[in-house]
């Protein structure tokens, strides 16, 4: 499982002209679900995302998590993060979980993280989404579990 997290001052996801999720200060999280991922990887990733220290403290050090700053989370499924890019100039997707299973795991992710943290917004699994953001920093990290 991979998660590309970006510290943002604002972000939103639009599907078919409708905004499905919008946040102010917080993290935009793109989630890539790989072939062998199960609930254990989801649980580990949720723990990591909620605790990852990417916000500045009073000493201007990245010592605060999204929970510490009471920021928001915008979660977006992105199967291209699970792509195999090791050879050639065209990504392969044999490393991504099949869509039906990935959707089930993504829904588990949303349900589980919502039980641990209330300030959650999301995109729509499998939809053609338009994502707008203002990256704060820029600060971007690729997390793996």
TrEMBL record:
Motif annotated as Gly-cisPro motif, important for rejection of L-amino acids, chain positions: 137-138
Subcellular location: Cytoplasm
Any one GO MF annotation of this record: D-tyrosyl-tRNA(Tyr) deacylase activity
Transmembrane parts of this sequence: none
Annotated GO biological process: D-amino acid catabolic process
Pfam families attached to this UniProt entry: Tyr_Deacylase (PF02580)
Annotated keywords: Cytoplasm, Hydrolase, RNA-binding, tRNA-binding
Keyword Signal: no
Keyword Hydrolase: yes
EC number: 3.1.1.96, 3.1.1.-
Task of the protein: An aminoacyl-tRNA editing enzyme that deacylates mischarged D-aminoacyl-tRNAs. Also deacylates mischarged glycyl-tRNA(Ala), protecting cells against glycine mischarging by AlaRS. Acts via tRNA-based rather than protein-based catalysis; rejects L-amino acids rather than detecting D-amino acids in the active site. By recycling D-aminoacyl-tRNA to D-amino acids and free tRNA molecules, this enzyme counteracts the toxicity associated with the formation of D-aminoacyl-tRNA entities in vivo and helps enforce protein L-homochirality.
PANTHER family: D-AMINOACYL-TRNA DEACYLASE 1, D-TYROSYL-TRNA TYR DEACYLASE
Protein family according to the UniProt entry: Belongs to the DTD family.
Subunit: Homodimer.
Entry protein name: D-aminoacyl-tRNA deacylase
Gene of this entry: dtd
